[in-house]
Amino acid sequence: MFQRVLIANRGEIALRVIRACRELDVESVVVYSQADAGAPYLELADEAICIGPGPSAKSYLSIPNIISAAEIADVDAVHPGYGFLSENSHFAEICRANNIEFIGPDVATIRRVGDKAEAKAAAVAAGIPVVEGSDGPVNNDEEALEVARKVGYPVLIKAVSGGGGRGMRVAHNDMSLVTNLQTARTEAQAAFGDANVYIEKYIEDPRHVEIQILGDKKGDVIHLGERDCSVQRRHQKVIEESPSPALGNDLRTKMGRAAVKLAKSVGYHGAGTVEFLVSGKSFYFIEVNARIQVEHPVTELVTGIDLIREQIRIASGETLGRKQQHVNFRGHAIEVRINAEDPDRNFAPSPGLVTSYRPAGGPGVRIDSHVVSGYRIPPYYDSMIAKVLVHADTRDEAILRMRRAMDEYKVDGVKTNLGLHRRILRNAYFQRGEYSTRFLDELLSA
Fold it and tell me: What does residue 170 show for φ and ψ, rounded to 5 degrees?
């Protein structure tokens, strides 16, 4: 097991990793930007090192600054959290070149699954259904038009190196395809440093369901069930739950086996997610996220398995210690993301001083957050300030528990999306589990 781990991230995920390290008796070193100086969670780490000014490019995305901090702190490993450098193969390579273990898959695997076109090819080779589309990036408008006419409109333009809805556009005809190609390329270049995009058939009204996987360095891989992430706004997840109300046992089993098969075929180790679109009784591979997900606590609640601890254990060389038949699922879990954003300004970020903060509590409620009263939310980072999770025996009970939690939860000083969550939880379609990835956009436009 490692002696010291550097946490190359911030906010709630940094706090989450600090806590996991404590429970493994591993020292934690957390980095922070000048904008995060004074954040309460820094005091819980064994050491905290400033790595630059507020903007991400000069701090949390600065590989030289983070490596310097790791060397100064004399750590054994780096945990990248999610976002920032968590799926950056160059960062992983530099860590290992400096004899620092990167807590995640190996470099070759990150590169392979991080390129959506290569990941899709790996899925095809493994016999897993994929959405029809281009075999790789489209090099020009003519190639894109040829693919779109072959598979039929509407089509989805997606950034090869993308995520979070950036570099993603839907086109319904030739004109909108050409226009949106340029927009998607520009977004992709700005967000990921890679303007390449590919084309695939747009499946209307699908569910977005992901399978959590764990693999060790000996080649063993298991899955920990699914999370339904279909409640999205502009392709960004808002609510996640497990199990999915859309899956029967047969489809659930097939998807779990497909995720494990793909992971084994690319030599995956660590925690990761294989994402699918589900339409009726059919499922189609989308991508692999080679990192811990924001919504990982949903899986922790229904399985009782601490995914951050498992990441650290596996990276240190330990084996899974359990087989697929030893994974037990209990009850229903729901997560909502509390964001500092203004619903009256199209959910624009709302940074600022949190004058009063009262988290929800009570039986079956879990709060993952780094925010306290008096905390100032910086303007430089993602607007998420907390994840509220509930666990109950049934989905109906979980929804009622989350409604109670949302009524208890209080954040003053900044705008939040609490009202949106209260509205969703009381929506009849959501309560019946009858929703797709278009559900939230349609609700907001009604």
Answer: -100, 135
Q: Which domains are assigned to the chain?
A: 4-103 (3.40.50.20), 132-201 (3.30.1490.20), 207-445 (3.30.470.20)
CA 336/CA 112 separation, integer angstroms: 31
Q: What mean pLDDT do residues 85-101 have?
A: 97
**The pLDDT value given to residue 276:** 97
User: For the chain, what is the largest distance between any 2 Cα atoms, rounded to a whole number of angstroms?
Assistant: 59
What pLDDT digit, counting tens, does each position of 383-428 carry?
Answer: 999 999 999 999 999 999 999 999 999 999 999 999 999 999 999 9
Contact call for residues 284 and 148 (beta carbons, < 8 A) = no
Tokens of 330: 């209990």
403 is catalytic: no
The answer to whether residue 28 scores a pLDDT higher than 90 is yes
3-class DSSP string for 187-250: HHHHHHCCCCEEEEECCCCCEEEEEEEEECCCCCEEEEEEEEEEEEECCEEEEEEECCCCCCHH
Q: Rounded distance, CA 377 to CA 352, Å? A: 5
Contact 168, 235 (CB under 8 A): yes
CB 88, CB 105: distance < 8 Å:
no
Of 411, 416, 419, 360, which Cα lies nearest the Cα of 390? 360
Per-residue model confidence as pLDDT tens digits over 203-233: 989 999 999 999 999 999 999 999 999 999 9
Closest CA to 298 of 225, 202, 231: 225
Centre a 10 Å sphere on the Cβ of residue 329 and count the other Cβ atoms it contains: 16
> Which are the contacts of 406, defined by CB distance < 8 A and separation ≥ 6?
336, 360, 388, 418, 421, 422, 425
Kindly name the residue from 10, 291, 337, 395 that is annotated as catalytic: 291
> Is 104 in contact with 288 (CB distance < 8 Å)?
no
Q: Which two tokens stand for residue 25?
A: 């008796």
Q: Which two tokens stand for residue 421?
A: 């969550």
Beta carbons within 8 Å of 140's beta carbon, 6+ residues apart:
none
The span from the CA of 274 to the CA of 379, in Å, is 31
Phi first, then psi, for residue 393 (nearest 5°) are -70, -35
The closest of 59, 52, 54, 104 to 82, measured between CA atoms, is 104
Tell me the C-alpha distance between 131 and 285, whole Å: 7
Q: Quick one: tokens of 7?
A: 């946490």
Question: What is the Cα–Cα distance from 207 to 437, expressed in whole angstroms?
Answer: 6
Cα–Cα dist 204/98, whole Å = 47
- Its pTM stands at 0.92
Name every residue whose Cβ is closer than 8 Å to that of residue 262 and which is 6 or more positions away in sequence.
122, 123, 126, 128, 268, 274, 285, 288
